[in-house]
Prior knowledge:
Layout: H1 3-15, H2 18-21, E1 23-33, E2 39-45, E3 53-58, H3 67-78, E4 86-90, E5 95-99, H4 106-109, H5 115-131, H6 143-161, H7 168-187, E6 190-193, E7 202-203, E8 211-212, E9 219-222, H8 225-231, H9 240-257, H10 265-292, H11 303-316, H12 321-331
Antiparallel strand pairs: 1-2, 2-3, 3-5, 4-5, 6-9, 7-8
Helix pairs in contact: 5-9, 6-10, 7-10, 8-10, 10-11
Amino acid sequence: MNPDIRLSQLNSWLATLASKWSLTLESLAPASSDASFRRYFRVTGTKNGAHQSFIVMDAPPATEDTKPFIAISELFAQAKLNVPLVLEQDVEQGFLLLSDLGNETYLSALNPGSAPKLYGDANAALIQLQLASKPGILPEYDKELLSRELNLFSEWYVNKHLNLELNSKQSADLAHIFDLILENNLSQAQVYVHRDFHSRNLMVTRDNNPGILDFQDAVYGPITYDLASLYRDAYIEWEEPEQMDWLIRYWDIARKAGLPVPSEFGDFYRDFEWMGLQRHLKVLGIFARLYHRDGKDGYLKDIPLVFKYTRKVAERYIALKPLLQLLDTIEGIDRPDGLTF
């Protein structure tokens, strides 16, 4: 549907709420957009009280479903996380009126001085979420879903974006690598997984930091997944000693809190890396698909960092040598036979 028609419908819907929430309709302005078809607007209110600013979600029903967002917002709020409250909803039209968590993202605020405190808060929020986990509430991050995500790498990044056709040996090797990755991922303890717990979806808030956005795709899955999103972030890079420090702090608190993390940090770190590898391969496919299918080129600039993460993990584990060889082919690197690292 034409965006102008959606905007007109959105304004009509807000007009029915203007009196209740003292909305200043003429203040409506774009707040952000994301990789989906959702859009967000900000509108101010004139009331003195808890809500002087609001976020309006426009989620076209033909492509987006607001019901998971509503349900998971309630679930995460019950875990005492700082998420937008759904104040008004029109599921049929795909409109939500939400509380506003501000406009300062982690990405905009992170620097060497602020990072330890911000990541410490993020670790604490993640542990809080994981401690609230129960099976049977969220969809399972099962083998089928994890596999479907890995296949995005082959279909969209290798075939479509790079215009490479894998030969039979490369295809077989990649299928074997995928099996190894899935074996690790599915062996990990299962908890609530936000699924995009990174610097663009975490907001700096005065109270109960961080504010947490974009959680509608949450699942029940591997315990290291959100940590891979956070510390192998596609939008900001930290040196490995810094990553290690924040991960050790998470692991230590998680163990003491009774979360099912491995008793040895080395085992935990390996799980983190292999889970991250699944995510990196998926993200390379998604960023390529956003460009080639959806016409969104803004994520192309983030591909090199994700590729760098992928290569680093492939270099570290001998079982991943076939993946490293494929990455060499992509980058045009010709190594002497038998030289892996």
